[in-house]
Design goal:
With 339 residues, the chain is α/β, with parallel strands linked by helices. Among the domains are: 83 residues, Tetratricopeptide repeat domain (Serine Threonine Protein Phosphatase 5, Tetratricopeptide repeat, Alpha Horseshoe); 103 residues, Glutaredoxin, CATH 3.40.30. Helix content is 59%, strand content 6%. It is built from 15 helices and five strands. The longest helix is centred in the middle third of the chain and has 21 residues. Bound molecules: zinc ion (ZN).
Length: 339
């Protein structure tokens, strides 16, 4: 039984809103700030941090620079510096509601996260609630290194920027998540998991971490432009390397001819458990089809096309040299044979 998992990147969209920066005038394009923004968009977060620091000394009165610098500190779990930068930004631009909200969120998280135990293993910045993790911390680090290596091999992508992994007690997780329903974990630029005593053994923890880490990889490769139906399918397919995935709902929907079209999956704002299960399972079977018919290598290329701004249908057509409607039709025929 899978725990429902929220729309990946839900809070990340907040992060991007925070950083939505105006198109720069020509004279600004060579500025350290514009180089920082470009590096940030390329997910080269270390370079982005260097340029953002430079940009702050170049133009200390520019609020957007402090916002970006704060965001970069936040993403590497340096909450103290993130807070200072955002407070400075708010002084310069007191009507920025998004910064105010980001500071409030940071305040809630900082209170909880300051008591957590550290256990970094590059590039993961690991924090967990003491005494709550169902495995030894050395094993936890081993799970992450293993995911980094094996998922990385599949996509030929190995991020070298910090990726915070925060494991909260269940009650603390409820305080920081911005979702109303129960979830097994989430990725919003950081991997966050609730540790539910009794329901989370080592295998389950490993499966959730693989799933969430895959979202981080997909996010980087697609620059946050991967639609949910593919994003969840890819994450569940990587999770599938650790544990079995139920497909009963998708089989039943297929028999009753109630299988939703790909681009209608995950289009509601709230889901009941049965719908969530159906969407995960359908997304999973879509990805299984794509990577079995083509390959993981082509999947990585498809994500990069999305990252370059190509719309989904065009990216599918270009990558698989097939009309997307035909791909979807052939997928249904494949499902009938393989479910
Ligand atoms: Zn997910």
């Amino acid at each position: 039984m899978r725990s429902p998992h929220p729309r990946a990147g839900l809070s990340l969209f907040l992060a991007f809103t925070l950083l939505s920066v105006p198109v720069l005038a020509a004279e600004q394009q060579a500025s350290a700030y514009s180089r920082a923004v470009a590096a940030y968009n390329e997910r080269d977060l270390d370079a982005a941090l260097r340029y953002a620091k430079e940009a702050v000394s170049e133009r200390p009165g520019h609020a957007d620079t402090h916002i970006l610098l704060g965001q970069l500190y936040y993403l590497r779990q340096d909450l103290k510096r993130a807070k200072e930068s955002w407070e400075r930004a708010l002084k310069l631009a007191p009507d920025r509601k998004d910064v105010k909200e980001a500071l409030e969120k940071l305040g809630r998280e900082a209170g909880i996260e300051k008591t957590m135990v550290h256990g970094d293993t590059h590039p993961f910045v690991l924090r967990f609630a003491e005494g709550q993790v169902p495995v030894e911390s050395s094993f936890l680090r081993e799970i992450l290194r293993d995911a980094y290596r094996k998922i990385g091999q599949q996509f030929n992508y190995f991020p070298d920027h910090a990726i915070p992994v925060l494991l909260y007690s269940d009650s603390d997780f409820q305080k920081i998540k911005s979702l109303s329903h129960s979830v097994g974990g989430l990725y919003d630029g950081k991997i966050r998991l609730p540790l539910k005593p009794g329901s989370l053994n080592g295998d389950r923890l490993q499966a959730i971490l693989w799933h969430e880490y895959t979202h981080a990889v997909v996010h980087d490769l697609s620059r946050g432009r991967c639609p949910m139906w593919l994003n969840e399918g890819i994450a569940t397919s990587q999770e599938f390397r650790i544990k079995n995935v139920e497909v009963g709902r998708v089989r039943a929907a297929l028999e009753q001819e109630k299988l939703p079209a790909w681009d209608l999956l995950w289009s509601e704002s709230r889901y009941d458990q049965a719908t969530l299960d159906l969407y995960y399972q359908t997304s999973f079977m879509i990805t299984q089809y794509l990577v079995r018919r083509w390959s993981w290598k082509e999947m990585a290329r498809l994500l990069e096309r999305l990252g370059q701004g190509t719309p989904m249908r065009d990216a599918l057509r270009a990558q698989y040299r097939t009309d997307p409607a035909v791909i979807e039709k052939e997928w249904r025929a494949w499902l009938r044979k393989n479910l």
